[in-house]
Amino acid sequence: MKSISWYDQFSRTAARGAGRSITFTVACVVILLWITTGPLFHYSDTWQLVINTATTIVTFLMVFLIQHTQNRDAEAVQIKLDELIRATKGAHNALLDLEELTEQQQDFFRDKYEAIARQAQQNLLAGESDTDSPELG
Fold first, then answer.
1. How far is residue 78's CA from residue 84's CA, in Å, rounded to a whole number?
2. CA 92: distance to chain centroid?
3. Four-point Cα dihedral 67, 73, 75, 76, nearest 10
4. What tens digit of pLDDT does each residue of 56-80 get?
5. Above 80 in pLDDT, residue 133?
6. What percent of the chain has pLDDT over 90?
7. CA 74 from centre of chain
8. Sign of the C-alpha dihedral, residues 103, 109, 115, 118?
9. Rounded distance, CA 36 to CA 134, Å?
10. Of 2, 17, 19, 98, which is most buried with the most CB atoms under 10 A?
11. What pLDDT score does 21 carry?
């Protein structure tokens, strides 16, 4: 196992911190402080520029941190799903790398599974079971 890079650790910590209620509260307090200083600075262009610049920088950096965290989380979920497919008897191992297939190949599998779902719904309405492992065909 490889050790976690500083960026992985930083982005994980920053994303967790950004999602906490205290962070939202601090952001609201900062905005309120900025608003209350308006009369002191006569609502000048510089006063407006301070908040615009600060929020733009924070937003710009957070986009990358959040995207990095989402990519890591999505990859972890994908690996877990792959393991469930691999370990489940009767599962279709062809689905292990579904995210790597072309759009047309994914459409093929989606169409097949939608047909299986429609058949299972009809079976349920007819009082039959839908817990088998039908062939993709």
1. 10
2. 25
3. 170
4. 999 999 999 989 999 999 999 999 9
5. no
6. 56
7. 6
8. negative
9. 66
10. 98
11. 96
Token pair of 110 as six digits? 């989606």
Residue 42 pLDDT > 90, yes or no? yes
Q: 39 is written with which tokens?
A: 């009369």
From the number of C-beta atoms within 10 Å of its C-beta (0-12, 13-18, 19+), residue 18 rates as middle
CB 112 within 8 A of CB 137: yes
The tokens describing 60, both together, are 């710009």
Cα separation values, 98 from 17, 76, 108, Å: 33, 15, 11
Tokens in use for 21?
Answer: 């209620």
Task: Please choose, from the candidates 28, 29, 27, the residue with its C-alpha nearest in 3D space to the C-alpha of residue 62.
Answer: 27
Going by C-alpha positions, the residue among 110, 115, 116 that lies closest to residue 134 is 116
- SS3 string of 66-107? HHHHHHHHHHHHHHHHHHHHHHCCCCCHHHCCHHHCCHHHHH
Q: In the numeric block, which tokens belong to residue 85?
A: 């497919």
Cα-based distances in Å from 135 to 5, 49, 85, 93, 127:
43, 62, 15, 12, 21
Which of 117, 13, 113 has the alpha carbon at shortest distance from 65? 13
Residue type, 5: S
